Amino acid sequence: MRSYHSHLGHTANATLPLPVARKPVFRSSAIFPAFRQPGLTTRIGFLGYWMVKRKIPEIHSVLTLRSSAGDMLLRRAERIADSKAYRAELDDLLADAGWAEETFTGSLEIEFFASRDLVYPYPAVIVNYYGPEFGTVVHTAQRVFNDAEDRSANRETSVPEAGFNVYADEDREPFFAFVNGFEPVVGGRVAMTFFNAFGESLASALDIPLLAPYETTVVYPDRHVDLRAFLRGRPGTAKIAFDVDWVFPRIVAGNAQRSRQALSVTHTYYDCSGSATDADYWPLSPEGYHPASLYVPVTASDYRYTNIHFYPIYSPSELEVDVELYDAEGALLGARKGLHTIRPDDAGFHTIGLRPLCESLGIDTAQPIGANLIARPAAGQRLPTRLKIGLDYGEGEDALPCNICKTMEVCNPALEAKTGSFHWGPVLTDQADAVVWLVNSCPKQGYDRFADLTLAFYREQDAEVLARPVRLAPNGIRELRLSEDPELRAFLGEGTGWYVATSANPYVKSYYLCESRSGIVGGDHDF
């Protein structure tokens, strides 16, 4: 794990003069587990954003399909020169590779190469597991390191991966999957600790005598330990330590739902509960700023709900969590101070239901709502740099929700000097509905800055763009539904689309969802 301060030094300060120049990035890559089962398959997608954001005229991609054992089945190269949507379907790749079996487990790796600095070794790529009954999505998690320096910088400390929900009952079971790098691992082990809603923990482990280069491992922990009895009908969470080499250990995790032949996925996050050095904490906020905050859309109309989850993964500190609720134009609808307390000795899994909170405050849940989550250190306590939450959007009680991994933003007044914002994400057109949310908020108390932005849509067919102006009030929110937008539906056609939101305001953010006919919801935050 690289410290948050080190991460900022590698990215935000890339243009500052330094005694030793920052090393440019000429290779950016992602590697995902790939599945095909009855009712379920895999695609990856990306936007040619390098042409739009960085004005790079062209890059080259190399896509590699491997079996679960790590054997290469197919490799394909492509020149990327258009700012449009790109997609690779596992079914098509398997057909080209001559794979005759109905089911498949393996991996898809995509690498991007350029002669100009790509800045980030992580590319903005999504994996979309989908079928007739569902769609679920998550951004790049694992990647194979570029070189020894890259590997060393990202292994300053070694911590378990954590921060995701697990369900275990007659219809649902959790899983996680990871792909090894290009070196074998001998005598490996997967150590798992589970936490339930009652403050209890349960440990289990698996031995992996040999992990081959690029081998894909899928673990269904409920088949090794009795999670159903442990969780007692409630969601829980887990911490996972596992042995891989030459690959970033952030992995795809989630839950399978048998009755719908469906998955819901997210990515894991650092377990910082054992990290308590000065580098793991942020300076106290100056006057007029919240120490840390995160503004999220709330969906609570009809049978929809929004939940916030807190995990036992934070650097030791005691924090109070407040929630402010706003309407689409940024007017305060209600607030609740001290709604939750994060304590260093609390190993539980905790949930705030935003729909019940709205109802208790007499807020009409049929309208678009934004929630500003605020974290305040208690007297004499420090502010952890990494405050990760789980953000669930769901429909009804029977279908799996999404479980978006998102971190609260620590107060950083230096962001005031940013000249603008550039955010993007996919529009997944093949489910019952696709949703894009735009929000405008920051850790400033009494935030009063409007955001004028351009919302541009890109499609697969060509490099044509559909652009619209949008104005967001301070603490305002805008919701766009594909089912209610015939112009956008006609523009995107049958392929996947992408949106780009640009503004001179540095505090604009976005989220996206896909809602399926079965009630399963997929979604993630933007790039």
Task: Describe the model.
The protein is built from 7 helices and 36 strands. With 527 residues, it is mainly β. The longest helix has 8 residues, at 4-11. It starts with a helix and ends with a strand. 47% of the residues are buried.
Kindly list the characteristics that best describe this protein.
single chain, 527 residues, mainly beta, five-stranded antiparallel beta sheet, 7 helices, 46% strand, globular
Going across the biggest sheet, name each strand in turn: 12-11-14-9-17
Unreliable stretches (pLDDT < 50, length at least 5) are: 12-18
Percentage of helical residues?
A: under 10%
The number of E-state strands comes to 36
Proportion of residues in extended strands: over 45%
Integer average pLDDT: 95
Distance between the termini: 21 Å
Structural class: mainly beta
Largest sheet: 5 strands, antiparallel
Number of helices: 7
Shape: globular
Radius of gyration: 22 Å
Topology:
Layout: H1 4-11, E1 27-36, E2 41-47, H2 49-53, E3 59-67, E4 72-80, E5 85-89, H3 90-97, E6 104-113, E7 125-131, E8 134-139, H4 148-153, E9 161-166, E10 172-179, E11 185-195, E12 201-211, E13 216-219, H5 227-231, E14 236-242, E15 252-257, E16 262-267, E17 269-270, E18 281-282, E19 292-298, E20 304-310, E21 319-327, E22 332-342, E23 350-353, H6 354-360, E24 369-377, E25 383-384, E26 388-395, E27 404-407, E28 409-410, E29 421-427, E30 433-440, E31 451-458, E32 465-472, E33 477-481, H7 486-492, E34 497-503, E35 508-515, E36 521-525
Antiparallel strand pairs: 1-6, 2-5, 2-7, 3-4, 3-6, 7-8, 9-14, 9-17, 10-13, 10-15, 11-12, 11-14, 15-16, 18-25, 19-24, 19-28, 20-23, 20-26, 21-22, 21-24, 26-27, 29-34, 30-33, 30-35, 31-32, 31-34, 35-36
